[in-house]
# Entry
Amino acid sequence: MRSSTDTTTKTMLVLALLAALAVLLRLGENLLPLPVQLGVIRPGLANTITILCLYLFGLRLTGLFLTVRVLLVGLLSTGLFTPGFLIGLGGTLLSLLLMEAGRRRQLFSPYGIGILGAAAHNTGQILTASLIMQSSALFSLLPLLLLLSLPFGLLTGAVAAKTLPFLKQYLH
# Structure
């Protein structure tokens, strides 16, 4: 019989490994060659790991996971508390809240949660950037970003849906 300490240690280890993988995925996106220069638009591959965390560990531990991920990416890429960091944080927070609401109410499968997360992340980034810049002009980018949320969110949701059974089996 396992003790709760063993379970907690295993959970924290898995979360740490998932956070490291998410940071690598996020930083690796900067290296992806894109056929058309899309600037700051990325597929959001690290969101796959966020979806997995939500389904495996719930909101509280996913919040911990995202805190670690956002801080590490900030340290390694954008810089802590820079406008880029804050814009990413705004997208992350809105995405987490809406994905958890969709998951908890069982409104969507992981595929839908991926799309919802991508759309919410893009919306949160535009909201945050607009507040920082004190300009509503950035909202003109939102239709394109929401359109791109469909394939990118579907991709992250599909990978999460296919991976989830294996991780559940490992953890239980």
About this structure: The chain has a mean pLDDT of 90. The radius of gyration is 16 Å. Residues 11 and 171 are 8 Å apart (CA to CA).
